[in-house]
Specification:
This protein is α+β, with helices and mostly antiparallel strands. It has two helices and four strands, in the order E-H-E-E-H-E. The longest helix has 12 residues.
Length: 72
């Protein structure tokens, strides 16, 4: 069963931003799919189990952006 969660991320403004964030998040164990949307300021992550938010935050920070939290 897949877990799908959408997070709010600040600082993304273009396709390159989306690619950077997606690439970093994809390295987290258990992540199966990532869809970043710069216009909406969101990243939707599919994973095999719930993600450790600190690992997600570290990946987004590494890409140069900031995780705000889960989207409503």
């Amino acid at each position: 069963m897949s877990n799908i969660t959408t997070y709010t991320v600040t600082g993304m403004s273009c396709g390159h931003c989306e690619k950077s964030v997606s690439s970093e998040i994809s390295t987290i164990a258990g992540v199966t799919e990532v869809a970043a949307d710069a216009k909406a300021g969101t990243v939707t992550v599919s994973s095999q189990q719930p993600l450790d938010e600190s690992a997600l935050r570290a990946a987004i920070d590494e890409a140069g952006y900031e995780l705000v939290g889960r989207s409503a």
